[in-house]
Amino acid sequence: MKPCILILFLGCFWVGKSQNLYFPPTVGSAWDTLAPASLGYCQPKIDSLYAFLEDNSTKAFILLKDGKIVLEKYFGGHTATSPWQWASAGKTITAFMVGIAQQEGHLSITDTTAQYLGQGWTNATPQQEEKITVRHQLTMTSGLDDGVPDHYCTLDTCLNYLANAGTRWAYHNGPYTLLDQVIANATGQSLNSYTTQKLKTPTGMTGSFFSVGYNNVFFSTARSMARFGLLILNQGNWNGNQLLTDTAYFNEMVNTSQNLNNSYGYLWWLNGKANFMVPTLQTVFPGYMCPNAPADMISAIGSGGQFLNVVPSQNLVWLRMGDEPSNSNVPFLLNDDIWEYVNDLFCQNAGVLDHPSNETSIEMYPNPAKEQLNIAVNGETIGEVQVHNALGQPVATWTIDASSGVLEVGKFPQGIYFLTLPGSGKVQRWIKE
Hints:
By secondary structure, this protein is of the alpha+beta class. It has helices at residues 3-8, 10-13, 43-55, 91-103, 114-117, 126-130, 134-139, 173-187, 191-203, 222-233, 247-253, 332-343, and strands spanning 58-65, 68-74, 84-85, 208-212, 215-220, 237-238, 241-242, 269-270, 275-276, 285-286, 298-302, 306-311, 316-322, 362-365, 372-377, 383-389, 394-400, 404-408, 415-421, 426-432. The strands form 6 sheets. Strands 2-1-13-12-11-8 form a 6-stranded antiparallel β-sheet, with helices on both faces.
């Protein structure tokens, strides 16, 4: 099925999942498994995936199909009982809990944030502050300045007006983190208490939020993260128990939430959109956030490479916990690289992604590149190639008269770049070391 068709019919993939999904018991460690061979996975390709994960400082990897564990691997002394941080992937738990609080009548996402944090929670004027709602915190559109020295800071002196709420998208952690206090003040319970009651106990999840500087960071085992992914795959329903009954909120959470960054819902990242934005930049980049992943994938993504990917069309969930060297708040590239290995698990040419034969695909290597970048496009003449830097600025244009060629990139500064084939609109990201 083509990606565009996947997007058009995204809604249908979220219907009727429960009859096809297995849910592990909420107490104990039992969890049904599927043999990788039953899905057509080859052991040498599984080994290649695990080698790549180990080489990239992974601690845990789990892949679920229909709710059952197909792959589960731990590295470097990490075990099934070892807790690890979710980093910004934990934002999605907060988004879910805001939905629960709204369905129980504790708050409305259209309420002004000041209703729960009090007037003067920012350094803006009362008129500017009054325009900021809970929904703006969920969508990263508060309009507060993310260019302050510490964008994690939640003090009023750090939360300065830059634009009217709803007119600017920016990955700003301070206003997001204050959602936790919004939930606590609205419900009369601490975030951990409310999450335990409404999410963890019904699903068997373990873990807690801990204060780390200004941040509230969720720590849990990999299997608890997998349980949350399974819950989201089934639209907030755990084995017949509908935890999030506000279906309108759920659908808003996992679809484009504003017209500034198409690839962002309520603290969830969305694949398959026409363009995307990244933290710290105001550039809108063309193409999918994660080109190697299915178009209907939604993702919880955190620094260090904490990934929780949910693919409704495949009844698939996979997660990765660990470290990674880029120090990016949202390390898209590593997520996309892992998807290349996941797509290649099959013994024959049948994978998670069903690419039509006439779809243009770009192969680039080595990536990261130091001096030369080799590119090839499935047997067709490449023509003009454009390269943009991470600010969206054009830095080079080459014309290649064959289906493959070598680009000299040794003089480029280190960083992330985007290669575009104008004729197809296909965009691929690469790193200059």
